Give the backbone structure.
Amino acid sequence: MLNYINKPVYLIILFIAMATITSCRSSKKVFRQNTTEEFSLQPLESETILSEGDADHLPACVKKYLQFTRAIGKVKPQNMCIEFDAEMYRKPGDKPMKSHSVQYNFYGKYSRFFLMKASKAGIPFRALHIYKKQQATFQVKVAELLKVVDVSGEALTKAETVTLLNDMCIFAPGMLVDKRLTWSEIDSLSAKVTFANGNYLVSAVLSFNEYGALINFISDDRSVLQDDGTMKEVRWTTPVGDYKEFEGRMIPTSGKTIWNYPEGDFTYGVFTLRSIKYNTKVKDQ
């Protein structure tokens, strides 16, 4: 190909390409730097056991959920690390893009760091979500060179606050006694939770089955990213199931992420939990 390009022009292109590569930090490196920093900012404190009395203020169905998941009698979560596989869909009828994700959540000062690696048609993608200090960013890179998504701002932070609440309800039920959450009972199998983090206030309805298992999370406070880069509020639901034991706790291992558009539901993610660890240290990364 060099034979068809003027040599000075080729050198300029090569210089620009090299400058782009060297100036662009990889998503994995940014993820590691942020999680390492957060472990320093939020080191593990003395462990405390979640008691029956801690859950007395919760609606009966939520308290039953804590009993079902065996959160009561276990150490309260201070952080957690999750790994899962997923099939992601860009649009209805699209072929799935297989992915693997790792995320860390911290519960002293709420933060969340999520890194997904995937590929489609042989092209690698990296998606990086960062939520800290009540601000969220979201980036997607192709081959770690080209940013195809780079979003931040209030609408995204509100949406990611809902995601943070969703993680808590599904994967860290021991955190549902947190005083930053407020509850109201709807009926014997559902309750509404409201979560305040700084200036952001979001809510969701939790649905349970007769055994006490959480089966769905429904929120109208999460926005979907449009093709033009704007955010649009759409009802978001995440049905879950297939509970299995992790560190003595019952946690759902399968779930879906669904946008409930007026014209019909769109399932854009199908997830399978691979591992979950609580109260980890930086050396566990």
Remarks:
- Residues 1-23 have pLDDT under 50 and may be disordered.
- Residues 26-284 form a domain with the outer membrane lipoprotein receptor (LolB), chain A fold (CATH 2.50.20).
- The longest helix spans residues 154-171.
- The radius of gyration is 21 Å.
